[in-house]
Design goal:
about 400 residues, alpha/beta, 7-stranded mixed sheet, 4-stranded mixed sheet, 16 helices, globular, disordered C terminus
């Protein structure tokens, strides 16, 4: 297939390499200028492709010095021109921070084509923005996490640290689920999932994004650790997974936040998956393992950092994820006190109003809908008839 990948950062670069290695023809589109990864992008243009150190090939899921050999994959197109990258592609995969979705949608959605699969990873219901600027009728999909954990380690080279065993998807409108999965299953092994594992709709994917739980709580609990190291041990940095997420405080917050997420998902007619069970599903082939032990094994091998509290773990996942959760709670009559406190505390530490900045039903243009109308909209893309059930074939 011809795949256009939007976003030349860590996730986009890794997926470009993986898809090219699998035999797909890849167009890589960089949408920003002088923000991040410009030197990396220019090096890929010079090389006409990308180098990768894929440590998952030997079962080494850590960012260690014992790396496998660097390999190369050519890319068909490496460009900053949206039209050149998107037109004629079978699939478009969008790997950008969700805070940029509204602006990017206005720039690129006009190039989407009929029945073209457009996957947002992550989504946080951002496909609604893109649908507003479409002249044609693509199939939108939203992922909960990237198919891999990767880092750009030098210009032109990405290192893959981990690959998910599975990744759930949802589709907008949900009536296109069967058609969308028929295409997505040909992209990566992680999308070879049974129909029971496909999410019911985009809000289910949004709230099952693991970052809404682990990034927000993890970095909030890590804040005093970062402050302490900065003042007393400037050559050291704590590890969010290893250090902050080893505290009782973090897990107490996670349990409360996960319960609020579960209540909102239930009110949306979904079958909620607890955070740790979702982690097991994504990361391991063997689902008989203990979910907490699986998380602990990943935690020990995770890289250091983040190095600052002013990081996308907060500046993206709080306003795009937690605020959306809170907004849905208000619409459905579900109290979310832990979620609301975390939004307030993170915003206070950065002197920002994340409730005002964040993604809400109102900012998505859905604030005036009733619950019935909201569910019908995400199922069929309109609010003018009764909700229908969505069958996978």
């Amino acid at each position: 297939m011809k795949i256009a990948i939007i976003g030349a950062g860590n996730a986009g670069s890794a997926c470009a390499f993986m898809a090219a290695e699998a035999g797909h023809k890849i167009r890589l589109l960089k949408t920003s200028n002088h923000v991040a990864h410009d030197e990396h992008f220019e090096k890929m243009v010079e090389n006409k492709g990308i180098y990768c150190i894929d440590n998952t090939k030997t079962g080494n899921f850590t960012d260690s010095a014992d790396d496998v050999e660097k390999t190369f994959q050519p890319l068909e197109i490496i460009t900053r021109n949206p039209k050149e990258a998107i037109e004629g592609a079978d699939v478009v995969m969008i790997f950008i921070q969700t805070t940029y979705h509204p602006a990017l949608a206005e720039r690129v959605a006009k190039y989407f084509q009929d029945d073209q699969l457009v996957i947002l990873i992550p989504g946080y219901a951002g496909s609604i923005y893109y649908s507003k600027y479409c002249d044609n009728n693509p199939i939108f999909a939203e992922g909960e996490s990237t198919p891999n954990d990767a880092r750009v380690i030098e210009p032109g080279t990405v290192k893959v640290l981990f690959k998910n065993a599975r990744n759930s998807l949802s589709f907008f409108p949900a009536t296109k689920t069967a058609r969308g999965m028929a295409i997505a299953a040909n992209l990566f092994p992680a999308y070879h999932i049974n129909k029971k594992s496909v999410r019911k709709h985009i809000f289910e994917s949004a709230l099952h994004n693991p970052n809404i739980i682990v990034h927000t709580v993890g970095l909030y609990v890590m804040y005093p650790m970062l402050e302490y190291c900065a003042k007393h041990h400037p050559d050291e940095v704590p590890y969010m997974y290893r250090d902050a997420l080893s505290t009782d405080m973090a897990w107490l917050m996670i349990e409360k936040l996960d319960a609020e997420k579960t209540a909102v998902l239930s009110a949306l007619g979904c079958e909620p998956t607890p955070y740790l069970e979702a982690c097991l599903f994504r990361n391991e082939e063997d689902l008989t393992q203990d979910p907490k032990e699986v998380f602990e094994s990943y935690k020990i091998s995770s890289p250091p950092g983040p190095y600052s509290f002013d990081n996308r773990y907060v500046t993206e996942d709080v306003p795009m994820g937690l605020v959306l959760l809170s907004s849905l709670g208000v619409k459905l009559g579900i109290n979310t006190p832990e979620c609301n406190r975390l939004i307030e505390m993170c915003g206070g530490l950065l002197a920002r109003d994340f409730f005002k900045e964040g993604r809400t039903l109102t900012s998505l243009g859905l604030g005036d809908l009733t619950k019935k109308e909201l569910l019908h909209f995400i199922e069929e893309g309109s609010t003018n008839s009764e909700p229908v059930s969505v069958e996978l074939t």
